[in-house]
Known about the structure:
9 strands, binds zinc ion
Amino acid sequence: MLAPDLATAVARLREFIDDAEVIQPFTGAGISTECGIPDFRSSGGLWTNTKPIPFDQFMASAQMRDEAWRRRFVMDEHFATAKPGRGHLALASLYRSGKVPAVITQNIDNLHQESGISAGDVVELHGNTTYATCLDCNQRYELSWIRERFEPANEAPDCPDCGGYIKTATVSFGQAMPPAAMQRAEELSLAGDLFLAIGSSLVVWPAAGFPLMAKRNGAALVIINRERTDFDDVADLVVRQDIGDALAPFV
Ligand SMILES: [Zn+2]
């Protein structure tokens, strides 16, 4: 059911939230656009000039690894200054109230953690771009550490411990989805009685299967997104409004 206007949407959303015992949020790019992070997949997005390097190309040559890091540092004007938006803060409020055990996200921007949700309770299906890891020994590296070593010659450093390649902690195109995160997202999707799909077009599989999994398991499904999604017809409530506006009353 599509809510006809913002006031009705908020009132209906409040009923669903009040009635639920366990709420499972699932977030996509739309929750972060008001934070200055563009939806990279949208047309005319930043990926024209700063498209991420596919995993096989990253592994294949030092030049591509250097290029990947150059593009990542260009993107930092968006990521480094972003602060949680009203949607993030609303979910953090529900998390503190005890109704939201964890957040499943397609986003890589770390904004759920910054809003106050414990890192262990943010299930990142596509990883995290605000830090890096060694692909061989998994040692964590901060971006500032990499940048200091990158900038003199535009050459990406390798891991001082083991010589492995250092890459942002994201899931690149051509890289497998993290099994532990996928498993946990599935368990969470089946454990809630209200599934909130927020700011995702729900087209990126397999992640988009979670709302359907929850719905088939008996949970109510609420979709909050600026644009129509493929699952609007099966949702119990569709809120096609600005995400910040729709969730601000729940902060
Ligand atoms: Zn290493």
